[in-house]
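FAQ

Q: What does a record look like?
A: Structure on top, sequence underneath. For example:
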């Protein structure tokens, strides 16, 4: 069941040269977690603010739970949209206890607000801290208070702005898992903005990738990673290698060697082969038809990355087993198991 729908949303700020959001359409299913991902200026925060009612679009409409909350010049006020919001800095009241912070968002919205606030704090694992103040908590605990305050009134959808950006790397993994479990346990529909691909991949059911105001692709994390619709999406999660090659009837010839593939018959000109570091397999001998000289190896504990050059000085990077030691300038033989082909 579709809970949130955006149709042809366009927004341009006054004095801006480009559209913040241009003709963006997508929907969010009930109970789904959707991540809006993109670089600074991609339009992700603008979309969040448009859904929350903090901005109004120039064109398009927004529907929430079957009701149009934005259409033309008409707009349902932000405080009547039944939307929960978790801000990037959490926006907790420093002079209020945790219980009082959650109660603040329940005024006039539920019966027995104190019980609801206590139950929600218990849900996020803070039942023993209800009398503490925000400054007495860790960053992860503060975020859970902000989440409790947002979901306590039972919003139709939960919006989160860079929810993990204020956490250190060690705490991030733990908090991401906790937040996802809480959202799923409460059957809350959620949409969050992030520039961190790990946040999106580990937390969201689907991811929408934006670039300069345009929606590039929306899909599951696996499909986005394995079946990107364009080069921008492909490089967003991890930079891809690119090799120029010539098509023949039996495969592709490049400065790194020959790659047998039936798709070569579909191309008559020079092509560009794109692949990720993990798609190349290092060989132990010259049975592989592709090779290059090792320029640099970088150790990462569970794997290493090999920077390899062809005779013309072009570079690619491939992933290799961490246990094997490679000497600089040695010849590395490899094959490519999965790659994309497009006209150069």
């Amino acid at each position: 069941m579709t809970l949130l729908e955006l149709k042809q949303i366009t927004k341009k700020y006054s004095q801006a040269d480009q559209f913040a959001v241009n003709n963006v359409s997508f929907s969010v299913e009930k109970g789904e977690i959707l991540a809006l991902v993109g670089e600074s200026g991609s339009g992700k925060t603008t979309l969040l603010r448009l859904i929350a009612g903090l901005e109004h679009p120039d064109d398009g409409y927004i529907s929430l739970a079957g009701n149009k909350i934005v259409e033309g010049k008409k707009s349902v006020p932000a405080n009547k949209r039944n939307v929960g919001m978790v801000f990037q800095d959490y926006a907790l009241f420093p002079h209020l206890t945790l219980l009082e912070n959650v109660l603040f968002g329940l005024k006039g919205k539920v019966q027995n607000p104190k019980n609801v606030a206590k139950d929600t704090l218990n849900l996020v694992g803070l039942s023993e801290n209800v009398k503490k103040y925000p400054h007495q908590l860790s960053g992860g605990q503060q975020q859970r208070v902000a989440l409790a305050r947002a979901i306590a009134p039972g919003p139709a959808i939960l919006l989160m702005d860079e929810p993990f950006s204020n956490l250190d790397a060690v705490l991030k993994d733990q908090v991401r898992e906790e937040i996802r479990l809480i959202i799923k346990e409460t059957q809350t529909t959620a949409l969050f903005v992030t520039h961190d691909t790990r946040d999106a991949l580990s937390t969201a059911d689907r991811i929408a990738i934006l670039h300069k105001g345009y929606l590039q692709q929306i899909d599951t994390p696996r499909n986005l990673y394995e079946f990107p619709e364009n080069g921008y999406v492909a490089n967003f999660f991890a930079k891809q290698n690119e090799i120029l090659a010539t098509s023949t009837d039996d495969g592709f010839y490049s400065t790194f060697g020959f790659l047998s593939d039936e798709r070569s018959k579909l191309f008559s000109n020079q092509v560009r082969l794109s692949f990720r570091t993990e798609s190349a397999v290092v060989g132990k001998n010259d049975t592989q038809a592709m090779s290059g000289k090792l320029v640099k190896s970088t150790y990462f504990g569970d794997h290493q990355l090999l920077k390899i050059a062809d005779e013309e000085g072009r570079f690619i990077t491939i992933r290799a087993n961490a246990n094997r030691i490679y000497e600089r300038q040695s010849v590395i033989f490899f094959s490519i198991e999965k790659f994309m082909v497009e006209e150069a």
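Q: Is there anything notable about this one?
A: The chain has a mean pLDDT of 91.
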